[in-house]
Specification:
The complex is a heterodimer.
Chain A lengths: L2 H22 L1 H30 L3 E2 L6 E2 L5 H8 L1 H35 L5 H9 L6 H12 L4 H6 L11 H26 L2 H9 L4 H30 L2 H6 L6 H11 L1 H23 L8
Antiparallel strand pairs in A: 1-2
Chain B lengths: L3 E12 L2 E12 L3 E5 L6 H9 L6 E6 L2 E2 L10 E4 L11 H11 L4 H14 L15 H13 L5 E5 L7 H18 L2 E6 L2 H7 L2 E6 L2 E6 L1 H6 L4 H6 L5 E2 L1 H8 L4 E3 L6 E4 L9 E13 L3 E8 L4 E7 L5 H5 L5 E7 L4 E3 L2
Parallel strand pairs in B: 3-8, 3-9, 6-7, 7-8
Antiparallel strand pairs in B: 1-2, 1-4, 4-5, 9-10, 11-12, 12-18, 13-17, 14-15, 14-17, 15-16
Helix pairs in contact in B: 2-3, 2-4, 3-4
The chains are: A mainly alpha, B alpha+beta.
Bound molecules: adenosine-5'-triphosphate and magnesium ion (MG).
Keywords (chain A): Cell membrane, Membrane, Transmembrane, Transmembrane helix, Transport
Main location (chain A): membrane
Protein name (chain A): ABC transporter permease
Chain lengths: 298, 343
């Protein structure tokens, strides 16, 4: 019998008492558990969003580029009336939608194969294979695409036998690269949904006289749609916020992100105003998506 | 003349190493209520899935109304299935579920609705058309599945343990309803079940499955009274096998016999002379089980072996019953109830 035994026993007693108290008082437990993450969320995330939004209503001194903290809606006025800004916003949303559409189109057959056609033993491996690109650095992947799409690169070389050439750098290259980058975020939820689709629903549909196409439209699609919507939240918002890919493979193409980036030094309030645009668009997108019920399962 | 709705010829199906169906020949008549009865894993579901077209056989032929459908897809066969777990489409309302088969077959919308409502009325679910399957009880879902399969008036309806998920009371009630609906619509029903009572009460004919083969096909009475094998005797009802020396001495001929417990009378050992055409055996009561409406006696025969006898409790009460334990009794049965089984 040594003293250490005694102290550990006492320590254990304290821990046990504490655990008991926490068990009896769920409110206290919840408070202790959630305070730190909630603070993090409120201060860092919502706080910075608020700062962004507020500073969008300030202006800059055109000589010194100093921020003038005077309340004004000039930035938003400029945003709406300047054709270039309007064009860039529309282009950015268009890119995000195009990437989402492409991801969906590619994800469906791939996920159908990984979830239902491939041998069951192979399926987890296939999922891992789909996820591996996510482990590689974003920049490495984008530069890889730059190589592929560059003049005389892989794309040109592969299309040459057909008398065609690659898309070169520009808007199509941006859409292509972004599609590649965010594809796993679409395949994964679609794969999960297809995998969980009860096989006997497909049997039942065929049993009632439906051919494959009909079963796909009337049974598979409606049941997988919420997952597509969930995946599209990722592909859409990630594309809308991107400004590096477009710099590397986009040629002269400008997206919202680039405008924000180029304004940040000279005209911070304008950059903030521009920055609120994707936030607003994504909120609208989420509201639209919510009607499909997809967010309930997210 | 009665036509043949389903004909199976030497049907075989294996999954890797397991042989699920090992050569089944079967003829199911038009308008018949036919049951496939057998223990778990005996291949009933596989036969049903082969008939529906969800699986394709390794060998053999499937005919529906005389037409060879062995290589046809499910949507090309005039059969509908009621699945064990109902397989209702969760994203559709009850009405849409029921109308789905009609929609697929391009029935005009107005007619579709009328027929779907009528089908729902047939299964006593009027007014539930706008609900989702998740908002229904188990028994209601089962009836939606039935309505969905019936509304297209297939030639044959396949039911895979449709009542398996229901509690006893509901199951008995649905058995009666199912039988009534079948009589009304006159469609051939093929029911898979491992509940012998269900098969006996509902069917016109029964096929008893054992390890991927049919052990016996016949009416409920034939199956019960004249089991063709020891397996059928033990799977349908309580078997009571009498074999070896004892059987030879009692019946006068060697072999294995099955006697249903309720066919055996329990008498005092000193009971009078044997009636003609009856066989008797004496023994000691080893166990008495009071069942409420009846009492089961387990009797160790003097010549060896044990028989179970079931007596209706016409006069006895539980106290009388207990007093029988250890007493000497004489068992008597009519000779025609001792069914000789192939060894
Ligand atoms: N898809 C499958 N893959 C592999 N084996 C299967 C498959 N389907 C059935 N089997 C096997 O075939 C045999 C027969 O199965 P089946 O489902 O026809 O039995 P069952 O008579 O319907 O049994 P239960 O009463 O339990 O439903 C079983 O041994 C089963 O394990
Ligand atoms: Mg089964």
């Amino acid at each position: 019998m040594t003293t250490t035994d005694v102290t550990t026993a006492a320590g254990r007693g304290t821990v046990r008492r504490l655990a008991g108290t926490l068990h009896r008082r769920p409110r206290l437990r919840l408070t202790l558990l959630l305070t730190a993450p909630l603070l993090w969320l409120a201060v860092l995330y919502l706080g910075s969003l608020a700062v962004l939004f507020v500073s969008a209503f300030w202006t800059t001194d055109s000589f010194t580029s100093e921020v003038v903290k005077v309340w004004s809606t000039d930035n938003f006025h400029e945003l709406v009336t300047t054709p270039v800004f309007r064009q860039v916003v529309l282009r950015s949303v268009g890119v995000a939608l195009a990437v989402t559409a492409l991801c969906t189109l590619i994800a469906f057959p791939v996920a159908f194969w990984t979830a239902r056609v491939a041998r069951p033993k192979l399926r987890p491996l296939l999922v891992v294979a789909i996820l591996t690109p996510l482990w590689a650095s974003y920049l490495v992947k984008v530069y890889a695409w730059r190589l592929i799409l560059s003049q005389g690169g892989l794309a040109d070389w592969m299309l040459a036998p057909f008398g065609l050439s690659g898309p070169g750098f520009g808007l199509p290259a941006t859409v292509l690269t972004l599609t590649y980058l965010w594809l796993p975020y679409m395949i994964l939820p679609v794969h999960t949904a297809l995998e969980q689709l009860p096989a006997n629903l497909l049997d039942a549909s065929a049993d009632l006289g439906a051919r494959a196409g009909r079963t796909f439209r009337s049974v598979v699609l409606p049941m997988v749609l919420p997952s597509v919507a969930a995946g599209s939240v990722f592909t859409f918002s990630l594309s809308l916020g991107d400004y590096i890919t477009v710099q590397i493979v986009g040629g002269k193409t400008q997206l919202i992100g680039n405008l924000v980036y180029s304004n940040i030094e000279l005209n911070l309030p304008m950059a903030a105003a521009l920055g609120t645009v994707p936030v607003a668009v994504i909120v609208l997108y989420l509201l639209a998506i919510r009607r499909t019920g997809a967010l309930n399962s997210l | 003349m009665e036509g043949i709705a389903v004909r199976l010829v030497d049907l075989r199906k294996s999954f890797g190493e397991t042989t699920a169906v090992a050569g089944v020949d079967l003829e199911i008549r038009d308008g018949e209520f036919f049951s496939m009865l057998g223990p778990s894993g005996s291949g009933k579901t596989t036969v049903l899935r082969l008939v529906a077209g969800f699986e394709s056989p390794d060998r053999g032929r499937i005919e529906l109304a005389g037409r060879d459908v062995t290589r046809l897809a499910p949507f090309e066969r005039d059969v509908h299935t009621v699945f064990q777990d109902y397989a209702l489409f969760p994203h559709m309302t009850v009405e849409q579920n029921v109308a789905y088969g009609l929609k697929v077959r391009k029935v005009p919308k107005a007619e579709r609705l009328v027929r779907a409502r009528k089908a729902l009325a047939e299964v006593r679910l009027e007014g539930h058309g706008q609900r989702r399957p998740a908002q229904l009880s188990g028994g209601q879902r089962q009836r939606v599945a039935l309505a969905r399969a019936l509304v297209g008036r297939p030639r044959v309806l396949l039911l895979d343990e449709p009542l398996g998920a229901l509690d006893l009371k509901l199951r008995e009630q649905m058995q009666v309803e199912l039988k009534a609906i079948q009589r009304e619509v006159g469609i051939t029903f093929v029911l898979v079940t491992h509940d012998q009572e269900e098969a006996l009460t509902m069917s016109d004919r029964i096929a008893v499955f054992d390890q991927g083969r049919t052990a016996q096909v016949g009416t409920p009475a034939e199956i019960y009274e004249r089991p063709a094998t020891a397996f059928v005797a033990s799977f349908v009802g309580t078997s009571n096998l009498l074999g070896g020396e004892t059987a030879h001495r009692i019946t006068g001929a060697p072999g294995t016999y099955n006697i249903r417990p309720e066919k055996i009378h329990v008498l005092k050992e000193t009971a009078g002379a044997d009636e003609p055409d009856h066989a008797t055996a004496t023994g000691t009561v080893a166990e008495v089980v009071y069942l409420g409406d009846a009492t089961r006696f387990l009797v160790d025969l003097d010549g060896g072996g044990r028989l179970t006898a079931l007596q209706q409790n016409l006069q006895t009460s539980s106290e009388d019953v207990a007093a029988y334990r250890g007493t000497r009794v004489r068992l008597r049965w009519h000779r025609r109830h001792a069914v000789r089984l192939p060894s």
